[in-house]
Structures are given as structure tokens and as C-alpha cells.
Amino acid sequence: MNSEQPIRKIAISTGGGDAPGLNAVIKAVTISALNRGWEVVGIRDGYNGILFPDQYPDRGFIPLNRERVRGITHRGGTILGTTNRNNPLRFPLSKPDGTVEFIDRTDEIIAAFHAQGVDALVSVGGDGSLEIAHALHKKGCRVVGVPKTIDNDLEKTVITFGFDTAVAFATECLDRLHTTAASHGRIMVVEVMGRYAGWIALNCGIAGSADVILIPEIPFDIEVVVQKIQQRDAQGRNFSIVVVSEAAHPIGGKIIAQAQFGRQERLGGIGEILAAELEQRTGKETRLVVLGHLLRGGSPTAFDRLTALRFGAAAVRALAEGIFGIMVALDPPNVRYVPLEKVTKRTKTVPLDSDVIRTARDLGICLGDRLGS
Ligand code: F6P
């Protein structure tokens, strides 16, 4: 990858958990690049196509042309595949003595780009993928990042694509759960993804008229949640909807997580504990629904499609303008460029003084720390 020569061929990689809108980015990058006379290749399964070429009949690279990206804007998932394992910056290598060493394999990615004649990379992903993109940039690669995640936890962009679709689906689920909860006079606990940020829970909870929303940013007091449910009962509303984010935790308690070898910890399980606790303390029948990976599936909303298409086209414009080592970001009304170093190794959590938190409180929704009316 010679940073002096004009761009003739670019690669695109999708990494981390999938999010609705990835295919729209792939389409926008491909068409925008082809329209500039560039060639485009997709890397299979994050960087696995390069790290394990023997496992792929196409040696891990897919040539992308108009035919290949036709009719994919509205499709969930990614036609390139993705993974949240085998981080090339900390690749787990098993040694003969049974121990494991973590090694940096990014030089192999750069060597593969040289071998393929790839001049620049568009890396679409969350914090992990953008950290890899930043490392490749520091090694001389022409790289542009595109922010993706249903969690909306990336810094310096107002929103990531995938988030709107996840919130829309979760809200529809809350609408459906309302009627059954009301019919049976039950408590419905709904656990949603979001990692260490409560964006999904807060947004779907408000839009879906939840009575209680528990997010990691506000540790909860179980007594307050019980009182909220009892208050509703006393007011003649004999059912309650409780939305809980996967990393929500009680005051002084821990996030429920399982360690995973060489990977980010797996969150989830708080819903089950909470539902049992609420049933026992209130005496009300309580049911749990874990939305989990359903939030990552389905067709992207119009907003996510448009954001993804805008991000993809902007990423190619940045490359054409000779601007590298940046991430494209939504800063309404425009898409702008922010340096990757200002984005990586951070988490955008919900600010406690944000308008959305205040809206929830003004509507009388209990956030687990005080009752709400
Ligand atoms: O980052 C997206 C996300 O869906 C998180 O909300 C969740 O904690 C995690 O990925 C789940 O990852 P996996 O697909 O490995 O279960």
C-alpha cells in the first residue's frame, strides 16, 4: 500500500457484531468507488479472509461489482460475513506447552493488501474494528472507518446505523407485550442488548411506554422498582412493563457477565434475576422476555439505510480527497470526519443530564433510583 500513488483499488471489511445497514454501506462504498474508476474487493468475515485464506475457496477476498451489490440495501446482516473473534491486534496463539500467547498479526493484513494491489481500506465496525483500523493507519495504511453498532455507544457520532432498527423493533415488542401484560395483570421484564450503554433500553422504553427502565448508567434500587409497581397497582394499573439493559446492575452490585477466552465478556442474565426478585417481592406473576439477537436482525429502517448509504459514500469521498485515519460521523445535518484516535478505546454512555433522561423522568418513568409519579 503506497500512500503516494493514486487509489485504484480499495478493500472493505465488516467486523464485530452485525447490525442492520451493513449491506447498505457495502453498496454505497462499492458504487461510489466504481464510479471513480476504482476496483473494490470485500474481505471475508472481518479479517478472517486474510488470517485464514486456506479456509476460503476465494482466498478470502470477494471482488465487488454492481451485480454483487444489487438489491442488498434493505437486507440485514452482511454479504461479506463478520466476526467478533480473532482480533488481529491480539490474536490468540496456542503454544505447544498449552499456554496461549496473544500476537499482533496486522503486518499480515498489510502484506495481503500489497499482494492484492489494495491501495486503501474502508473498515466498517464498532470500537474493536475501529481500533484495528487505527492500528493499520498508524502502520501507513490509507484507512477510513465507518461507525456501526446497534448499541450506539461510539464516541463522536450522534448515532450509529443499526441503532434505529434495534430501537424500532424493541418498541414494537413492547407494544405487543403491553396487551398481554394488561390482560393477565402481570409484570413483564424485557431484557435488551446494548453492552455498557443504556441507549437501546432508554429509547425503546420511552417510545414503548415502559413503566420502569433500568440502564447501566443509573444503578438501581430494587426497593424503588418494587414501590413503583405497587404504586401502579394502587392506582388501578395492575400490570407493569420493566425494560432492563443487559449491563444494568443494582446499587453496589455487579454487571452479570461471563468471561470468554480471548474475547469481550458476554453480557446478559440480569433480566432473569430481576424477574425472580420482582415476583418474590411483589407477589405478582412475572415473565421474562430476552430480545437478544433479534435486535440485530431484520431489514434496516429507512433512517438506518440512509445513514449507512451516507456513511459509505462519505468514506469513499474521504479517500478520494486524500483524508485518512478518520471515521465518518453523523453531525446533523452533515456527515463529517473525525480522527480515529478520538473515537477508539472510549464508550459513549447516556449522559445523566441528557434530554432523553429528563424526558423519561418528566413522563413519570422510574429509572430505578427514584419512584417517578
Ligand atoms: O455490540 C453488539 C452486541 O449485540 C451487544 O449488544 C451484545 O452485548 C453483543 O453484541 C453480543 O455479541 P454476540 O453476538 O457475540 O453474542
Describe the structure.
This protein is α/β, with parallel strands linked by helices. It folds into two domains: 9-161 and 300-342, Rossmann fold (3-Layer(aba) Sandwich); 164-297 and 351-372, Phosphofructokinase domain (Rossmann fold). The protein contains eleven helices and 15 strands. The strands form four sheets. The protein has a seven-stranded mixed β-sheet with strand order 3-2-1-6-7-14-15, with helices on both faces. Helix 1 runs parallel beside helix 10 and helix 6 (163-184) packs across helix 7 (199-207). The model has no long low-confidence stretch (mean pLDDT 96). The structure holds 6-O-phosphono-beta-D-fructofuranose. 6-O-phosphono-beta-D-fructofuranose binds at residues 17, 84, 126, 149-151, 193-195, 246, 267, 296. The site of 6-O-phosphono-beta-D-fructofuranose has 12 residues, from loops.
Break the fold down into its secondary structure elements and pairings:
Layout: E1 9-14, H1 22-34, E2 39-43, H2 48-51, E3 61-63, H3 66-69, E4 91-94, E5 100-103, H4 106-116, E6 120-125, H5 127-138, E7 143-147, H6 163-184, E8 187-192, H7 199-207, E9 212-214, H8 222-234, E10 240-245, E11 257-260, E12 263-267, H9 270-282, E13 286-290, H10 302-320, E14 326-331, E15 334-339, H11 355-362
Parallel strand pairs: 1-2, 1-6, 6-7, 7-14, 8-10, 8-13, 9-10
Antiparallel strand pairs: 2-3, 4-5, 11-12, 14-15
Helix pairs in contact: 1-10, 6-7, 8-9
The structure holds 6-O-phosphono-beta-D-fructofuranose.
